Amino acid sequence: MTGAPIRTLLLWCPDWPVLAAEIVDGVPATGPVAVLHANRVVACSAPARAAGVRRGLRRREAQGRCPALTVVDHDPGRDARAFEPVVAAVEEVAAGVEVVRPGVCALAARGPARYLGGEEAAAERIIEQVAESCAVESQVGIADGVFAAGLAARTGQVVPPGGTPGFLAGLPVEAIGRPALADLLRRLGVRTLGGFAALPAGDVLARFGFDGALAHRLAAGHDHRPLAVRQPPVDLTVTAHHDEPLDRVDAAAFAARMLAERLHARLAGHGLACTRLGIEAVTAHGQELHRVWRHDGLLTAAAIADRVRWQLDGWLSGSTGRAGARPARPTAGIVRLRLVPDGLLARGGLQPGLWGEAGEERDRAHRALSRVQGILGPEAVVTAVLGGGRSLADQTRLVPWGDERLPARPGPPPLPGAPAKPPLPGASVTPPVDGSSGVVPPPSAGAGRGGAEVTGRGGAARAGRRGSPVPPWPGRLPPPAPAVVLPVPLTATVHDVTGEPVLVSARLAVSAAPARLAVGGAAPTEIVGWTGPWPVDERWWAPAEARRRARFQVCLADGAALLLAVEAGRWLVEAIYD
């Protein structure tokens, strides 16, 4: 905290929280607007101040003074995001900018003053730059130190070099920004910053503590720290311009490989790698194309080139790699191609995946699967991701190799410090033990074959253990999972001992015990054990998406165990147990 303070240029955007709400949320700042935090006003617009609204007022009092007041919640993230373009505009004129807080930034005044023709000329140039680039009004103050420059910016002053102590001396003690300290100083008879600065530093430290001593230094025109210069983010994007439009896949693939190698070399030069890749293209007719590829790993030069080639192939040939409608081709060839890396992290800083720690086996498997993708396409190699859901088909999602392995639906969270949850709606199929159902009922099924978990209007049933939380997918199949899940369920017929079809009523009453099962046109097989039904009533509030069915587990005489479902009076085979 020694040495003369740096000559500082500070840019201040008045009422910035209000302007940020207008920029991000579209709240008109020309009307009476107040930004509230903890039910108190932290910023307000000029029309609101004209109506009597002030900082620190409670919400009800502010609305009482101005009934037409528009209230906005305080959002520091919104303020910071909206201020970033302003800082970028200042950096186009001068380097070494420090963001003091959203709405305020500071920089050393010496450099801009020297090449812009003086401090006043530099202040005018920066104000014009912000107004032209961001359409934001601002004020600039220049003084010795950040604190004094901030006070000078309130009135748009340029304090002469060495004149900062005199400029501060006549300001009231409230300008220090510490209401409690200012109130105490006024009760002690100290009303100006000059009077506060004249007190002995040792006595101030002993009476007011460290924060009071810091305020004493600021009142005397000394800064407590140098400027913390912001480092602008490095531009890692690579762009290629083509005089001859690319309208053939082979030419586009060649250009993609060269651009991918440039991007990988630029990232490697900074010790970085990316996990997401943005691909942007502009056609000769001005059509803009954009797509983001995600990767569950570090994108190498070959992986970047493959993804760019796949995307260009999809754009130029109108192919999606999936069955279905083909997208329309661009109306002209590509004249500009741009790669934007995202999800940056240090090389080697990724969590190991399926094949354990980084090693020869893991790298060999990754290269082999990536090579197959390069030959057959991105969706020729897929991996399964387990997630949530009540049906077996909902619990599995196939994603292309290398993409982020995110489930389509959240799965049930594990209970800390507790064993796995007992099965709720299902049971393990066993040989008959009492000649009735031949299946051991699940722990939570209760007495009888219909005592099972119900979802839908009745809500989720209680968990298997008293006091344990209900999982997010009540009615889902418990482990162990079936060995084979049929992509398309097979139709079946179930009959009782008299040959009559077995029916399940809306109240889950089974007409008779299942005795024989016939899958498709095959001969009937005797059922030696069964359990169920377990109902699932999904999305009953949306008639177009509603689905209601009941599930059974059966054990056949030939040793097979099946998962059956009856829906709209039809029996279906959904899965086969091993």
UniProtKB/TrEMBL annotation:
Locate the region Disordered.
402-475
Family annotation (Gene3D superfamilies): 3.30.70.270, 3.40.1170.60
**Which stretches does UniProt call biased (Gly residues)?**
447-461
Q: Where is the composition biased (Pro residues)?
A: 409-425
InterPro entries attached to this UniProt entry: DNA/RNA_pol_sf, Rev_trsase/Diguanyl_cyclase, SulA_CellDiv_inhibitor, UmuC
Similarity annotation? Belongs to the DNA polymerase type-Y family.
Read off the PANTHER family from this record: BLR3025 PROTEIN, BLR3025 PROTEIN-RELATED
Protein name per the record: DNA polymerase Y family protein
Q: Which species expresses this protein natively?
A: Micromonospora humidisoli
